[in-house]
Each structure stands twice: as C-alpha cells, then as structure tokens.
Amino acid sequence: MSSSSSDEVDEALEEIVDQVVDNFIHSMVDVQANKPKRRVYIERDRERGHNQLCNDYFKENPTYQPEMFMRHFRMNKPLFLRIVDRLSSEGPYFQQRRNAHGRYGLSALQKCTAAIRMLAYGQSGDTYDEYLRLGESTARLCLENFTNGIIQLFGDEYLRRPTPDDLQRLLDVGEVRGFPGMIGNIDCMHWEWKNCPTAWKGQYTRGSGKPTIVLEAVASQNLWIWHAFFGLPGTLNDINVLDRSPVFDDILQGRAPKVKFKVNNHTYRMAYYLTDGIYPNWSTFIQSIPLPQGPKAELFAERQESTRKDVERAFGVLQSRFAIVKNPALQWDKEKIGRIMRTCVILHNMIVENERGGYTQIDTSEFESGESSRSSEVQRTTSFNIGNMLGIRNKVRDSEKHDRLKADLVENVWQKFGNVDE
What we know:
By secondary structure, the chain is of the alpha/beta class. It is built from 15 helices and 8 strands. A 5-stranded mixed sheet has the order 3-2-1-6-7, with helices on both faces. Helix 4 crosses helix 7, helix 7 crosses helix 13 and helix 12 crosses helix 15. The longest helix has 33 residues, at 2-34. The model has no long low-confidence stretch (mean pLDDT 86).
C-alpha cells in the first residue's frame, strides 16, 4: 500500500509540473504573437539620392539637358521649381527637417520628384527606390501629400470657372472658327479601376467588362480644361452623367456672366458647347449632322466634328502626360483616386499655360481694335436672382431654340467657309 500511494503522489506531481510548464510555454507564445513587429530599417543613404538628383537635373551644368527634363518630368524646370517652392514653403510635409540625431530627412526635391514620376509613368511606389533612395510606403505618402498640396495651393486658379475675360476670349476663338457663341467642347472619359471592391464591381462595370470611373470635362482649343467632374460609376452614359453634373449650376443659379451673340442676324443669349450625338437637343448643345445632305450640311458636319475634337485632344494629352490616368487605377480608396485625377487636371492646365506660346494660336486680332466687329460679347454685369431658376432651366433645355440655332450655324459656316475651295 505504501508503494502504491507513493506512485500516485509522483504521478500527481508530474501532472502538476507538466501543467505549469505547458501554461508557461503557452503564455510565452502568446506574448511573442501579440508583440508588435518592428519594421526592418534599411539605410538607404538618402543624402546620396539627393545629390544624385541635383547632379542629374538641378545643378548649373546638369547631366540631362532641358529637353530630357521635360520628357522625364512632363514640364519644364522653372515650372517644377515653382511647384516645389510653393509646397516646401506652405506644406509642412515637404519642409526638410532634422531628426533626433541631427540628420536631415528627405528633401523637397526628392519627395516631389517621386510624386511626379508616379503620376507621369503610372508605376508603383518602389520603382524609384534605388534612384531617389526612399521606400515604397514613403513614396505613396509623398504622392498623397503632393496631391493634397496641389489641389489646395493651385486648384482655385487652375480649375476655376471662366471669368468674363476668359469667356470673351473663348467667344472670339469660336467666332473665328465659324461658331459664334461657342465656349468649348464637352465629353466624358472613362478611367479603369483595377482594384475596385468586389461589392461595387456591378455598379462600375459596363460593356467592356472592367470597372471604370467617369470624368466629364469641358475643354477649349488650347487644351485648357475648364470643367472637370469626376467620380461617377462607369455604368452611366454621358446623359446620366450630365443629369448629375454641376456644369450648368452657375447658369441656373444666376452666377454666370451674361453672353449675347448674333448668328445669321438672329440674337441669342445662351452660350453653347459642341458635343457628339448622344447629348440631347438643348439650346446649350450643338451636335453634328449624322447623315448630311447637300454641301451646306456636309461642310457644317466637317467643321463641327473637327472643332469638337478639342476635348478628345485634351483627353489624349492628359493621358500621354500622366500615364497614371491612362493605366488602370491601382488604389483602393476612391477619394484618393479622385484627388489624383484633379491633380493631373490642375498640372495639365499649368503646363498648358506655361507652354501657351508654343501652341498654334487662333488669330483674334481683328477683335482687339474694338468691340464693334464682334458678334459675340460678354455682358460684365451678372444677375444673382435665383427666383426664376425653373425658367432658366427651360431656356437651357429649349429644343426649338436648339433647332433654330443649328440652322443659323449651318448658314454661318457656309457663308464663312463655303467658297474657300472654289
């Protein structure tokens, strides 16, 4: 009996010891599992990246000449430095500071170059790690702060509504091209969204089978984008987008400058856009003639379709300058995608303004001597009475005035260009 009882005591002690050991092991495993993992630090020698960038592009005799700078940065050096100076002076993220060891962080040139390269080439954040000496997460953070800074600092100026002076220039150009009262061309562009959430794919996918987001834009002859409305699902066509667009808000609310123009001895007081055939027959839209019959209709269709290509050219130039809006969007957050599109449009307009002298300009010198020769003019006084919003809306959508204006424009184009080939 004594040996039997001692064996039971030994077994009990062993069970207790095993239980204690198991509990200790499990507790240590849980602690290690819950312990936050520190990110591996890589010494990238960021000073060498800054020096290499300056030697290549920004010193007195750089390795790459201005032509190569424009090719790599999509803009000339003075414009890029202007952007960097504004961001570094007014954006805390782009100000170079010392860390706790007294070592300087990434320079504003490195951060802005990383953002511009991602916009220009549409590549991932770690593509320029070896050259600019910054990691992928840092590059994405640079892009996010860059887009926020561009929209905040330059959005009001380069994505503004046309001022009365802007409208008068647009009207003069339209009159020279045979379309008095025309202030631009409107159309939509689709941007593929590669990482669209699965729950949203049905809402954003149309005939192509890939989810897209729509950009509605108004562009003028010099490729300036005057209106950009982005964010609607790709299943919507141009008419559905128009129903949700703020393009006519200023007119409906009485904030837009008044316009008066004369075509074929008839006076009109509502400017219009050139469009493709999907848009409705409103007084503010002029489409081509699908099956023109006779020389007048054929000439009008030819002139309207060639002039309406301004917005298509603007889309093409925007995508060629910034491949990020040509390639499928890789972001998950729709708001970030929207900020990227707005940033690209703002930068596009800044480049258009900077390179305006190099574009083929429409000669409007005949209107500079006085306003008597103009058939289109902007009235400098604006009305802020929004009580008659329904009446203004009916004028915008007046189909009878659309038909009369289109007939007058057909006659005007024939009188202006009909005898050129004879």
